[in-house]
C-alpha cells in the first residue's frame, strides 16, 4: 500500500503537469486559429462524451504544419538556430578545452578551488550573466572605452544586437557545461601514458593529439551535447544580445504566442522543435550508455 | 609527474578572467554616479537607495522568494519520492513512461514547457498567479532533484536498510532513520538546486504567470530590454553577493561534514577491527 502511494504521487503529478500539457500542445497544433476565447477551434466538448471526441478528431488537420513549411520565416529560423547552436558549440569547445586541460594539470590541492570557480557562475542568475554583456558590448560600452583608451578603435563598436554578441553570450553562459565533463575525463587520465609516448619518441604536441585528445573524447562529446541541445531552443540570449535579424526558434515561438497570439501555429512550432531535438538527445543518451558500459 | 606549463597558466588566467570580468564590471558600474554606462562620474551608492525605494522591485522580490520557497520544498519531496521509486521500487506498470517523464523535462526547451503548462492552466480555467508558477516550477525542479538524489541512492548500500527492516523497523521508519540521514546531503543540494532554478527562471514564469504576480526575473527582463540601467546593476550586485556567500558557506559546511564523517568511519573501523 505504501509502495503504491510512493509511486502514485510523483507519477500522477508528472502525468497531470507534464504529459497532459504536452498532449494539449499536440492537439492545439492540429487545430485552427479562431477569433474567440480560447483562440482556436475546435474545442473538446466533454459533455458530448465519445461522440464529442470523434467530432474533434475529424476536425483536426495538419494545416499549421503545411503553413510552417510554406512560410520561409519558420524554416529559416530552424536552420539558423541549428547553425548558431553548432557554431557556438565549436567555439565553446575551443575556449573550454584549454581551461579544462589547465585545471587537470594544476596541482591536486588547487583543483577543488578551481572546480568551485567554474561552478560558481552556474549558481548566479543566467539573466544577470547575459545582461552583464549588454553594458560591455554596447556601442560606447566598457569594451569600446577600453579599446579606444588603447587607441585600437576610434568608432563606436557594432557588436551588440548582432549574431557575434549572441555567440559571445552563449559561449560565456554555457562554458561550465563544456569544462566540467572534459575536466572529469582529463583528470582520470594516467600521465604515464604521455611519458611512455615521449620516451618512445613522440613530441609533446603529437603526444597531445595522439593520446590526450582521444582519451578525453567522452568528455568532449558530453560537453558538446550539453551545450548544443539547450542552445537550439534558447530565448534569453538572442532577445537581449541579438538584433532584429537574429532568427532563433525560441524567440519566434515566444513572439508567435505573445505578439501574434496565434496559439495553433506556436504549438506547431513547438512540436517541430521537439522533433528536431529528439535526434541529438537520443544520440547523447546512447553515447552516455556506451560510456557507462565501457566503465563497467 | 604532471607538468604545469606556461600554456596551462595562461589559459587558466584568461579563462577565469573571461568568466569573472563581466560580473566584476557589472558590480563596479553599480557604484557609478552617472546613469550612463559610458561615463564614470565618481563613486556613489545612490542606485542602491533608489532600488530599495522602488516598491515594484520589492514586491517582485517577495513574490520570487515565496515561489522559490514553496516550489523548492514541494520539488524536494516529490523529487526524493521519484528517486526512491526509480532506484528502489523495482518493476511496476508504466515504469518506462515514469522514467521518461523524469528525464524529458531536463532537456525540454523552456519555451515549450512554459507554453504547454500555460495551455493546461487555460484549459482547466485556473487563475494564473503565484500558485500556477509554483506548480510549473515544482514540475521541472522535481526532475532535477530526483536525478541528484537517485545518483546518491544508487551508490549507497541497500543492506543497511534491510538490516533496519530485519530489526523490526517499518519501511517508513527504515527510510526516516536509516536512508534519509545517509542521502541527506543529496536531498539538501537538490533543494538548493530547485531553489536557485526557481529564482532564476524567466521563461517558464513568463508563460505561467498572470497580471497579479510579477517575479524578479520578469521585472529585470522587461527593464533591461530597453537597455542598461544602473538600478539593475545594483540589484544584480546584491544577487551575485548573496549567491557567492551562500555557495561558499555551503561548500565549507559540506567539506566539514565530509571530514567529520570520514573521522567517524575511521573510528568505527578501528573499533570493530
Write the layout of secondary structure elements.
The complex is a heterodimer of chains A (296) and B (273).
Chain A: H1 2-29, E1 32-33, E2 40-41, H2 49-59, H3 63-70, H4 72-105, H5 111-123, H6 126-137, H7 142-149, H8 163-187, H9 192-199, H10 204-215, H11 217-232, H12 236-241, H13 249-258, H14 263-295
Antiparallel strand pairs in A: 1-2
Chain B: H1 6-29, H2 46-53, H3 55-88, H4 95-107, H5 110-123, H6 130-155, H7 158-166, H8 171-200, H9 203-208, H10 216-224, H11 230-272
Helix pairs in contact in B: 1-11, 2-11, 3-6, 3-8, 4-6, 6-8, 7-8
Plain-language structure description:
The complex is a heterodimer of chains A (296) and B (273). Chain A is an all-alpha fold. Chain A folds into two domains: 23-59, no CATH class; 72-295, Orthogonal Bundle (MetI-like fold), CATH 1.10.3720. Chain A has helices spanning 2-29, 49-59, 63-70, 72-105, 111-123, 126-137, 142-149, 163-187, 192-199, 204-215, 217-232, 236-241, 249-258, 263-295; strands at 32-33, 40-41. Chain A has a two-stranded antiparallel ribbon. In chain A, strand 1 and strand 2 (40-41) form a beta hairpin. In chain A, helix 1 crosses helix 14 (263-295), helix 8 (163-187) runs antiparallel to helix 11 and helix 11 (217-232) packs antiparallel against helix 14 (263-295). Chain A is globular and about 80 Å long. The two termini of chain A are 36 Å apart. The model of chain A has no long low-confidence stretch (mean pLDDT 87). With 273 residues, chain B is an all-alpha fold. Chain B has a domain at 57-237: MetI-like fold (Orthogonal Bundle), CATH 1.10.3720. Chain B has helices at 6-29, 46-53, 55-88, 95-107, 110-123, 130-155, 158-166, 171-200, 203-208, 216-224, 230-272. In chain B, helix 3 (55-88) runs antiparallel to helix 8. The longest helix of chain B is centred in the last third of the chain and has 43 residues, at 230-272. Chain B is globular and about 70 Å long. The mean pLDDT of chain B is 88. At the A-B interface, helix 1, helix 4, helix 5, helix 6 and helix 7 of A face helix 1, helix 3, helix 4, helix 5 and helix 6 of B.
